[in-house]
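[agent] plan:
  1. take the single chain provided in the ticket
  2. run structure prediction with default settings
  3. attach structure tokens to the ticket
  4. add a short note for the reviewer (M.T.)
[agent] executing step 1
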Amino acid sequence: MQFERITVDPDRMGGVPCIRDLRVTVSTVLGQLAGGSTVDDVLSDYPYLERADALAALKYASVVVNEREVPVARPA
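[agent] step 2 finished; step 3 output follows
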């Protein structure tokens, strides 16, 4: 799945998913939200982020936690 606002660059932040190629990681935004901050609180802490960025981080997380590796049976 393609995410317009989430970028992964091995040369930025160690390849950790970031918001719009900024040095704000998806996990930073998610951590604040999980800790009880509102989207408005996050936007206040990072004024260069947009509401759509915080929502994209949530959407990205929901997709990632549903990803699975399914083992393929080896032929006998």
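[agent] step 4 note for reviewer: DSSP finds three helices and two strands in the chain.
[agent] ticket updated
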